Amino acid sequence: MLIISALNYAQSHQILKKSFEVDKNTSVVLNFENIYVAIEESTDGKIHFDYAMEFEGYSKKAIQEKLKEITAEVSNFDNGITLMAKSKNQITFARFELKTDHGLYIEDDLFSLKKDSIIRKAKDSLLAEIRYNNRLDWSKSPLKYINGRFKKMDKDGNLSNIRKGNVDILRSKFLIKVPPFVKLNINAVNAGLYFRNDMQNELSASIKKGTLKTKGLLNAYNVLRVDNANFEAESISGGTYNFKNVKNGKIGSTQEVNIDSEFSKIEIGEINKSTTITDFNSEYWFYNWAHFFDRFNLYSEYTKIHFFYPDRNHSLKVVGNNTKNLFGNGESEINMQPTRKGEKYTMMTREPHPGETLSGRIFFDIIHGIIYSHNDSIKTINKN
Amino acid sequence: MKKDIRDLFKEEEELKILPKKHRAEFLDKLRKNSKKKSNTFFRLGIVAVAIIALTVGFNIFYSEPVEEISPMIAQIEAVEAEYLADIETEWENFITIADDEILISRFKRRLEELDNDYQDIAVLFKNDSNNIAVVESLIENLQTRLQLLKDIQEHIKILNQNNEQHENTI
């Protein structure tokens, strides 16, 4: 009984705990590799680093080996703070290490390719998805999560559920609190960054592989480069975003942003004022439009667009060539054919309804594109 | 397992990569692998005995240890081989239907970048083969490459569909 109790006891280890006074001129550089971290706002003018790990099922030796793999150091020199946090192996917020005696069977679901959504999502609905994903609750039921993906397999190929004794659990609790007035320079490789508050900080961030999940990113000088990673944000307001192979991209709303993207899949809940997208071979979902979105520009090649029309009075101009516009479920289409030399021409125009307040102007410059048009308001707004 | 892209277009809803009998095939492969190792070991033994017989006075028995490959690694290797074969097939199909050199070169570069990422994840997997997050990353990388190629072929197919309509203004 005593042995069982001792084995089940989760051990905590403090990796890093430091705080520093900062001012608006402090240079803060945060480097992450293979480590997940939550970032929140601090209200006392200090930056706080608090990194602890909790081991469940690990032997003392295994814990020591795991701790040796991790480096978490912070230096403070000449009003500059630099964090280096890395692990030899990837450590998510909850890390599951399987210790089956023979092998694992990977559920087919893990291999199935997801079908595209063609249903208009309300902004609130997309926000709910983003908020749900930017949380840690799932780690409280790790066995459910694991058994949804894997099964234990014995030497004869028989499958059974993975039980608590088959898996060691490591919980990584890394929290950084930063005041809103400091600029953050972030370099993350195969890491997970979870911003838990609206971030007014100026951000210069490079995210390669891994994940960035955040509430609002609200700074006109933000520069973010996201490469081969997951990106979810409740809102992005101001700044420049470079998305390359962003998977499951979800953005609640965009405002005054420039997005340069390629090979990505991005859903946008609501397009607000002055958004410009330049793209190559991505797939976008434009679900909703703000009452006054002012101007929206899309410059693209080989892009697939799920275009849900604004409910309010707007104008639309589409230039380019070799593009298909499919309506509804593909029941009808407009074929904007290629020109011999590939020069662009005006493929579609619609003027706003005179006498009504203009919600905004939509401009597409699109080559080799496919536009799936949904909820076309032309029939309702322009009818007289 | 190679697939004909034309069949895939016909059966779009059935996009699962692994056949149902995947597990059984995997177990067969495992058994065959372990038989191969036994034979190798046996042959090494014969060679070693012959050496002993020829070198009287040296009572040394030499045999190389046979490294057991973990079932998890074997399974991932099988999955990887299958995906890579499919990716190669889809690549061949893609360059057959694409007539835009810039498009092909951009895809080539993107796939190379993803392959480099895969090599990085493979190093993590080598050190940490029971970490679920790493296994998922490996599979996701392969899926991403395959999906990219399937998507662009579907895109080109839609663009190339004949249509007599040509409208400038709506």
UniProtKB/TrEMBL annotation, chain B:
Coiled coil: 97-169
TM segment ranges: 41-62
Keywords attached to this entry: Coiled coil, Membrane, Transmembrane, Transmembrane helix
Superkingdom assignment: Bacteria
UniProt KW Membrane keyword: yes
Protein name per UniProt: Anti-sigma factor
